[in-house]
Amino acid sequence: MQNPYQAQITQLEEKIVDTKLLLEDPDFAELAKVEVTALEAQLKQLTDAVLQMEQGSEESEESFAEKINCTFEIRPGAGGDEAKIWANDLKRMYLRFFEKMNIKVEHIDDLIFKTKGKITEIENPDGETPYITAYELFKYESGVHRVQRVPETESSGRIHTSTASVAVLPEVPTNAIEIRTEDIEWQFMRASGAGGQSVNKTNSAVRLVHKPSGIATTCRQEKKQEQNRKIAMDLLRSQLWEIEEEKRQKELGKARSAIGRAQRAEKIRTYNFPQNRITDHRIKESWHNLPFILEGDLTKLLTDLQAAFYALEQEELSSEE
User: Are the beta carbons of 185 and 211 closer than 8 angstroms?
Assistant: First the structure.
């Protein structure tokens, strides 16, 4: 982490050395002593500020290691209007589950929302902590969710296959990813839809483009533009972290398997309406009562996933030893 006070600290240290030389001169010794005391007091203030900043950074990195909060970003895939409907169905499924579990949700855009906190109703498979964090619980939801059903708009009763991608990204502290101001292009617009006159009549909605990566994020939920700017930056930071994490894994020689965050292009699950079945292709497990699951009854599915992935992780760790 860059020390913003380093130049001032170096300058003060040099002044102290030069002033101490005057202590040997009887004509300036008294004045030099007072000056050295004042300079050393300033130096201590700056070094204390640096120490406090470093401690704060360590706390941020420590809390990030647990990765408590996370952001969901859902995008319609192949399937036209039915894919858009399916993306909204997935959003509703997750929101219903959050509601049942009293999990706090913060809406960011139409298909983007953040969930916060720790869940005690679902047992952590490691058996060490009495809770599981929002990110740890949902990180395995990242990937392509495929649905097979007869759309409401289909008059002939033909089964359609549509997809939507889900990305679950952890909340990333500001100091974890460096983003240069000159790399950001901001666009401002009026928010649409519900939200009151102050939302719809001012340019409070924001869209940013990160020029080096081409990533674009949008936020329109807050009435104040500055709040939306902060949320858009948080979204960008999470996506850049994901890219950096993939690079680190490649450098370590670890291929991305079913264990961990799945890429958007990976098909992870199929929701088969005619057979009333949900199948997770990574652990080759199926669940029935599909309508209840889409109403937010996700406890068993998530519990089974946690147990299966934990077992796979332990097996992979054992093979590396």
Answer: yes
Distance CA(163)–CA(225), nearest Å, equals 33
Cβ(281)–Cβ(267) under 8 Å?
Answer: yes
What is the domain partition of the chain in residue ranges? 6-63, 66-172+258-320, 175-251
CA distance 121 to 131: 8
* pLDDT > 90: percent of the chain: 30
At the topology level, CATH places domain 175-251 in Double Stranded RNA Binding Domain (3.30.160)
CATH T-level topology, domain 66-172+258-320: Alpha-Beta Plaits (3.30.70)
3-state secondary structure of 27: coil
Helix (H, G, I), strand (E, B) or coil at 244: helix
**CA 217, CA 185: separation in Å to the nearest integer?**
11
Distance CA 184, CA 208 (A): 7
Can you give the length of the chain in residues? 321
Helix ranges (DSSP H) in 67-180: 81-101, 134-138
Mean pLDDT for the stretch of residues 291-305: 95
Question: Which whole-number Å values give the CA distances from 8 to 4, 37, 52, in the listed order?
Answer: 9, 17, 17
Closest CA to 259 of 87, 125, 69: 125
Residue pair 114/135 in contact by the 8 Å Cβ criterion: no
Q: Are the beta carbons of 269 and 279 closer than 8 angstroms?
A: yes
Q: Average pLDDT in the 79-87 region?
A: 90
pTM of the prediction?
0.68
Same fold, 66-172+258-320 and 175-251: no
With H, G, I as helix, E, B as strand and everything else as coil, classify residue 74.
strand
Radius of gyration of the chain (CA): 26
